[in-house]
Amino acid sequence: GIQVEQSPPDLILQEGANSTLRCNFSDSVNNLQWFHQNPWGQLINLFYIPSGTKQNGRLSATTVATERYSLLYISSSQTTDSGVYFCAVAPQGGSEKLVFGKGTKLTVNP
Amino acid sequence: DAGITQSPRHKVTETGTPVTLRCHQTENHRYMYWYRQDPGHGLRLIHYSYGVKDTDKGEVSDGYSVSRSKTEDFLLTLESATSSQTSVYFCAGGTRPETQYFGPGTRLLVL
After folding, report:
1. β pairing state of A10-14 and A104-109
2. How do residues A8-24 score in pLDDT, each as one tens digit?
3. Above 90 in pLDDT, residue B7?
4. B chain contacts of residue A56, beta-carbon cutoff 8 Å
5. How far does A76 lie from chain B, in Å, by closest CA?
6. Taking a C-beta distance cutoff of 8 angstroms, is the pair B7, B104 a contact?
7. Which of B45, B46, B48, B89 to mutate: most A Cβ within 10 Å?
8. A93 pLDDT exceeds 80?
9. Would you place residue A106 in the very low, low, confident or very high pLDDT band (cuts 50, 70, 90)?
10. CB A15, CB A78: distance < 8 Å
């Protein structure tokens, strides 16, 4: 099946710093989503982005489908950005069946 | 949480007993999903539903069954719980596969 690799596995930042999280996937996809899991366990959908670029406030994401990777950018990080960021993809023909990466754990220190 | 609740939120049970987890949604989501989250594995899809009485298997469906007799409720059943099913279970829903909204999770401990 499709493989999803996220990097780095852990990231520690000072408040105000910028960061880039990467998601590589092994096959063509028609569904790619980024999620944030806060320290209390709640999962929030950030972006649906199988291709192209989107922005939402301090967060933006870019997916280069032809090269099979996606990037999540966090600018001017805040302590509330801490948590685990997951990339999830579904292969062509199976958009309901998301396969998750193992996540990037982000810690933003004050 | 897009109107998704899970019950119970915590459960401790013994090996061999049946367990049913309930997911309830109030947003008329067509699609509903059950995932499990384990350290080192991220989230893995157990089963999903694309309509009332329409379900399909996910990545880790062995030992689990689901039912969806009405739009609002998606039940996950462990017929005979095993220690390997100790996990955090998340329900998700969405009107399209492109967006999934998650419930708060259920922590299950099988002794």
Report:
1. parallel
2. 999 999 999 999 999 99
3. yes
4. none
5. 26
6. no
7. B45
8. no
9. very high
10. yes
User: How many other C-beta atoms can be found within 10 angstroms of the C-beta atom of residue B83?
Assistant: 10
Tokens describing residue B45: 């899809």
* CA-closest candidate to residue B34, choices B12, A85, B11, B63: B63
The mean per-residue pLDDT over the stretch B36-49 comes to 93
Picking from A84, A92, A97 by the largest number of B CB atoms within 10 A of its own CB, the best residue to mutate is A97
Instruction: Produce one character per residue of A3-14: b if its CB has 16 or more CB atoms within 10 Å, e if not.
Output: ebebeeeebebe
**CB spacing of A48 vs B98 below 8 angstroms:** yes
Angstrom distance (rounded) from CA A40 to CA A20: 23
Q: Got the DSSP string for A46-83?
A: EEE-SSEEEEETTEEEEEEGGGTEEEEEE-S--GGG-E
What average pLDDT score do residues B21-39 get? 96
Beta strands in B8-63 (DSSP E): 10-13, 19-25, 31-38, 42-51, 54-57
pLDDT at B2: 64
